[in-house]
Amino acid sequence: MSHSVSLKALRRKVAALERRPAAVPAARAALGVPAIEAALGGGLARGRLHEIFAATPGDVAAAAGFAAMLAARLGDTAPIVWLRQDEAERTAHLHAPGLAELGIDPARLVLGVAADPLMLLRVAAEIVRCDEVGVAVIESWRQPRPLDLTASRRLAVAAEASGVTALMLRVDAAPAPSAAHTRWQVAAAPSQPLEAKAPGFPALDLTLLRQRGGVAGQHWRVEWDRDARGFAEAPLSGVMVPLAEHGSAAA
After folding, report:
1. Among 87, 148, 199, 234, whose CB has the most other CB atoms within 10 angstroms?
2. CA angle 209, 119, 181 (to 5 degrees)
3. In a domain, 116, yes or no
4. Rounded distance, CA 53 to CA 146, Å?
5. How many CB atoms are closer than 10 A to CB 124?
6. Containing H/E element for 234?
7. Helix (H, G, I), strand (E, B) or coil at 28
């Protein structure tokens, strides 16, 4: 009897999968660098989960800056929700002038603070399901046990269903199996001074570590133009706009 019941349950699951509509191809957002857009098949996929890792502990501000730049590029006029663990909020606060320098209107930013990693992921799943949100940045510290392949899959499915772009910012963490559409490694890079020795544009070294169904391993050095809200290839030659009100290891 138990084998019969199990077989029936399996058949129901298979039938449900066969009835499930095919995933809608993702809309692509141009980032401003043709080489990056070509590698991504036209641009960064909207309505998908993307992971962002700092190359070293000293590059956390650069990784957070990249998340903010993508949010500014992808968010249009919709709200940007930035979710953080309580530990991150105690260490350093998001710096409104720094975000404004990157092109984000602080009035569009909704900040959420969760007491622990499990609550962070539960809240994130609900936020990503809300189709009125433009971009959700989920800032997770270290290697929390609740953040496993299943949890990332839940976020990925929610993003595909709602069209919300989810950016998982990993602080002091190592890459692990996940359902993210792309995985990026970010490091700060020296910026090129402007005329009269004015500070140059923020510069980053980007490495595409992983891309679902696509090539990976490419590396680019880019600059961020706040006025154009886009990236450009940077000349090889650093000023990073501070996102943290204090401290050097938090967004």
Report:
1. 234
2. 20
3. yes
4. 18
5. 26
6. none
7. strand
Q: Is 139 helix (H, G, I), strand (E, B) or coil?
A: strand
| 239 domain residue, yes or no | no
Cα separations in angstroms, 148 against 16, 119, 138, 153, 179: 25, 14, 14, 9, 9
**pLDDT, tens digit, 9 for 90 and up, residues 81-136:** 999 987 766 666 778 888 888 888 888 899 989 888 899 999 999 999 999 999 99
In this structure, how many other beta carbons lie within 10 angstroms of the beta carbon of residue 86? 14
Backbone φ and ψ for 179, nearest 5 degrees, come out as: -100, 15
Q: CB neighbours (10 Å) of residue 245?
A: 13
* C-alpha closest to that of 39 among 184, 237, 177, 164: 184
Give me the domain span that covers residue 193: 30-233
As a whole number of angstroms, the distance between CA 246 and CA 251 comes to 10
The CATH number linked to 191 is: 3.40.50.300
* pTM > 0.90: no
